Amino acid sequence: MKQFIRYLISSNVGEVVCIFLTAILGLPEALIPVQLLWVNLVTDGLPATALGFNPPDLDIMEKLPRNPREALISGWLFFRYLAIGVYVGLATVAAATWWFLYDAEGPHITFYQLRNFLKCSEDNPLFADIDCEVFESHFPTTMALSVLVTIEMCNALNSVSENQSLLRMPPWLNPWLLAAVAMSMALHFLILLVPPLPLIFQVTPLSGYQWVVVLQISLPVILLDEALKYLSRNHVDEEKDRK
């Protein structure tokens, strides 16, 4: 139950952070409503369901019985959910921003120009030699959506165990989860490649290099969660046992 809740809370926090950041920084939308709806109803649903088939933790017999008065989600667990969620949101916005600033197929504008994209016009010297239609490109939203989906699949794999490292409890201990992740990624490629879905979801196929960037932005979430699990095993749980 905890892992199911952890997965959904951290994923949804990430989406909220993404929307909040783009609004407060004045950036173009990284994700549009139909994309968020797709992620929440389809791509997240399969892994979340599969987490119900997780095996018990390896050290479950070494733990003291849970106090019935203890909250299901402690302050530390809530902090972990927030930490992962904040990374998800930051990474999603970073992916869209990267396309505008650095991608070979992008406009190579400055961050200041990006923040002031609503002022783009032929008469504005700030946007000289820049086609304002570039701010309606589907590439940045596709980058953001692809990072969101990929990170959430990594997040699902992280959720095989609450505190055990992936090295001790690898994802293949839950084959249903692997199948769900594969299905979710297949569905993501489906909306990128099969007409008329790209038009409906306002996405476009990515190049191999762009997918490398997606992975570079997404995979560090595994290291972040491993660090949080280490703190849980070696500090938080030990202090709880002393009490």
From TrEMBL:
InterPro entries: ATPase_P-typ_cation-transptr_C, ATPase_P-typ_TM_dom_sf. It comes from the Eukaryota. The chain crosses the membrane at residues 78-101, 176-194, 206-224. Coiled coil: none annotated. One of its GO terms (biological process) is calcium ion transport. GO terms for molecular function: ATP binding. It is found in: Membrane. GO terms for cellular component: membrane. Residues 28-231 form the Cation-transporting P-type ATPase C-terminal domain. This is ATPase sarcoplasmic/endoplasmic reticulum Ca2+ transporting 3. It comes from Rhinolophus ferrumequinum (Greater horseshoe bat).
